[in-house]
Amino acid sequence: MSKKQPIPDLFENIKGARPPQAELEVLSCLWQQEQATVRELREAMAAFRPMAHGSMVNLLKRLEAKGLVQHEKGPVGKAFVYTPTRRPEPTRRKLVSDMLQRIFGGNGVAMVSTFLDTRPMTAKELDQMEELIRRKRSDSTSKP
User: Fold this and answer.
1) How many separate domains does the chain show?
2) Is there a contact between 22 and 71 (Cβ–Cβ < 8 Å)?
3) Is the pLDDT of residue 28 over 70?
4) Domain span holding position 101
5) Torsion angle, CA of 1/103/86/18, rounded to 10 degrees?
6) Domain check: are 80 and 97 in the same one?
7) What is the pTM of this model?
8) Would you list the DSSP string of 48-74?
């Protein structure tokens, strides 16, 4: 029986520990909005993670200490405007890769099947998935 390789910390290049769920949700919201004040983030997240102003400020300070967000004075009043310092794709890939190994034992088909079973997909989403599969299949057959 072969010994399992340890799973590397996929966030080793981020200052501090792996971002907790609440921090990832704030970061995701910032990626969607590109920049936002604390108030704008609280309003955008109110439906799924209601949060006091001070709690949001603390999360943003932790993200900034980890090098994931930065802030500058906003154009009006005292509010700071926060922006992400990294693009979302590398972080998403790291999270999904981590989930693939830790939860699905590297079985990509099981992971995708689970994702597809979590909610109904629209016809447009299914078309996009089919196109992605066609491109991936084409890429894999064109490589030596």
Assistant:
1) 2
2) no
3) yes
4) 89-142
5) -80
6) no
7) 0.67
8) T----HHHHHHHHHHHHHTTSEEEEE-
